[in-house]
């Protein structure tokens, strides 16, 4: 938001009067162009300009990044991926040159990244890992010492100025690798200094064991601080990257988010396509000539691939290195296959050059002994045929690769258009004839709330829809996408999982005016609340273990059913009743829930809530608790 306001003010001051909304809409595409330039700079830092241009081209069209950089995608990642790539470029530049200036600029862009996205933790662990690996490989240098020491000190102090970070770099596990590497490189630098200053051999032999003891003491101290909780352990979201079952067991609210699920193989193909095969080629050429900067690319590729496999959201962090390595691999390919002289017969060229060298007496002798015309013609003809065949193979190979790149562009355009360009509140579908249908139930419901409810109304829903209710309907919500208090979210889960009578009391205690539920059974929309219901229960039972039990919502066969064979707890729950109330009357007694492929429940009654709105395709349903005087209930004391 600060970036958007700054751009808006700059444009306004130079006479370009634009709407702040337009700035927000085009912010992500603008920064995506900067990301492509950053990919070019990063690639040229470790390779050449041809590979850099190819990497920038891949970065500009890869769906794995476009998913968060299309117009209207106003989220943290729109800025953060540019900062990630550009910070890595600056780091490699500073590590190669040993420039304190570049190190300071690296720290400043790291500070910008910290203010933009929590993914800054990836940077503050990748750079120390790079330094640590170089130390293990025996590649310590003064340039490395100057660049990392400058970056760490300035970057850490700058990041601590961000309110939500504060003193975390000094007492959380996410930052300990950077601190430990900073201490280690000081010890290595001190060792180098003593070795340089000490000429006596026996003194040198004493230095290494002494410094080894210091390192061991640091490791033991760090282990003690972690064991005694003086240093906070990894946060649940980050710890789930190492233990894939951790979030499901202990932090279900993290595991319930679709972006935090493991990545399917189909997702890799959709987001990367031919880059999947070009990346290993680029990695081969990188490892063939392994400079200090290229070690960083190898580490990034390994960690990026692992994290992207664990969490689908982290395809964002994998895409830049995939584009860089693909650019390097394709650059080497074109450099080889478009260099026609490389396919000429080197032995023949060498002989021709020798025969033309008048200073070589052996060459003069050979020049006198002329071969017969028949033999010369046969050799020349054979060489010309072989050379022509080589060029044909050359052109055919280049044509095939160029064709694949063209198909990749078509694939990227299709994926971007169909998967990543639709707003989340407007859905698209197709009828049996292939005609595109627009499903606008969300905006229809929010518009109804805006025009038919008092401005002070409070709307209850699952937290996924909190931002939309606040932004589009302009109504107060109890939880939204930025709710940090897990008890608030668990309370919503408890209401949905409770019986009507119990839920009614909680709803009145919280002064809730309307309840919103999403149902996709009519259209086959799988992202509705019934499919999320088990996650709601898992989140809720962490706070209310005596009231909520997941196993109660499975039927006698152990299935998650919504029909007449559903468990009593499921049939009595508010979620089930609000979702399926009157649905069987509309679709028929033998109707099918298309999202779950199950028969609809036939008898669903409501006693404590009134239906006030159902959208055209029955996706959004709104209910209002009945007044107490109608129910004849006495308010609790």
TrEMBL record:
GO terms for biological process: post-translational protein modification; protein N-linked glycosylation via asparagine. Residues 456-514 form the STT3/PglB/AglB core domain. It is found in: Endomembrane system. One of its GO terms (molecular function) is dolichyl-diphosphooligosaccharide-protein glycotransferase activity. Belongs to the STT3 family. It comes from Smittium megazygosporum. GO terms for cellular component: endomembrane system; membrane. Its cofactor is Mg(2+); Mn(2+). Residues 350-360 have a biased composition (Low complexity). InterPro entries: Oligo_trans_STT3, STT3-PglB_core, STT3_N. The chain crosses the membrane at residues 23-43, 49-66, 78-94, 144-164, 176-194, 206-227, 265-287, 294-312, 318-338, 395-416. Keywords: Glycosyltransferase, Magnesium, Manganese, Membrane, Metal-binding, Transferase, Transmembrane, Transmembrane helix. PANTHER family: DOLICHYL-DIPHOSPHOOLIGOSACCHARIDE--PROTEIN GLYCOSYLTRANSFERASE SUBUNIT, DOLICHYL-DIPHOSPHOOLIGOSACCHARIDE--PROTEIN GLYCOSYLTRANSFERASE SUBUNIT STT3B. The keyword Transmembrane helix applies. Pathway: Protein modification; protein glycosylation. Residues 350-380 are annotated as: Disordered. It catalyses: a di-trans,poly-cis-dolichyl diphosphooligosaccharide + L-asparaginyl-[protein] = N(4)-(oligosaccharide-(1->4)-N-acetyl-beta-D-glucosaminyl-(1->4)-N-acetyl-beta-D-glucosaminyl)-L-asparaginyl-[protein] + a di-trans,poly-cis-dolichyl diphosphate + H(+). This is dolichyl-diphosphooligosaccharide--protein glycotransferase. Residues 1-325 form the Oligosaccharyl transferase STT3 N-terminal domain. It is a multi-pass membrane protein.
